[in-house]
Amino acid sequence: MKRIAQVMYINPDCYDEYAKRHAEIWPEMKKLLKEYGATNYSIYLNRDNGQTLAYLEVPDIGTYNAIAKTDTCQKWWHYMAPVMKTNSDESPIADDLEEVFHLN
């Protein structure tokens, strides 16, 4: 199992809306995440600076990354774009973190 951690950036006035949208995640998006291998997925928000830490586990990173090409994922990005910093294709700006320690 591969572990993924990323930092993303929420707009300062949108913290509650970001949390609300994830609390009400579309069933089809939730199903898609599981179909593409995501497990143990959590997102943490730092309300002091708007950064999130997303952590998930996947069997294969390439398979998981293919989720970006699906209509459902792209619609989710469009839905989330008003509340977070995004790239020109509306994907979230996400900085990958390098794992430097893991306690098994």
TrEMBL record:
Enzyme class per UniProt: isomerase
Keywords, sorted A to Z: Carbohydrate metabolism, Cytoplasm, Isomerase, Rhamnose metabolism
MF terms in GO: L-rhamnose mutarotase activity
Example of a GO biological process term: rhamnose catabolic process
Keyword Nucleotide-binding included in the entry's annotation: no
EC numbers: 5.1.3.32
GO cellular component: cytoplasm
PANTHER family: L-RHAMNOSE MUTAROTASE
The name this protein goes by in its record: L-rhamnose mutarotase
Species of provenance: Latilactobacillus fuchuensis DSM 14340 = JCM 11249
